[in-house]
Amino acid sequence: xxxxxxxxxxxxxxxxxxxxxxxxxxxxxxxxxxxxxxxxxxxxxxxxxxxxxxxxxxxxxxxxxxxxxxxxxxxxxxxxxxxxxxxxxxxxxxxxxxxxxxxxxxxxxxxxxxxxxxxxxxxxxxxxx
Length: 129
Hints:
Distance between the termini: 9 Å
Number of strands: 8
Number of helices: 3
């Protein structure tokens, strides 16, 4: 298993401010707690699937938190071509707000299960070199 540094809000913000990403987002905000959890789990070898993108607009359609976590973890990303809404407006990740206070998974009854690692027993692991 690969050693890694735990993700902090400072590391995330610095990364977003300094990194030109291939795809942008239509989101106005992302949740730090979600990105941090996904990043840790990806570094432990778990795979959470591809990212849906609209290649016409070069935006993430589904998987914004995973996209950032995957980039930070420096893993290969599977992109799935999709369509976006005609009203989706592209924003650079450096221009969106990061919610440092609220855990969106915890605040959503269905997604609360992702706060614990218990669900990982049903997840696929990547081959880690």
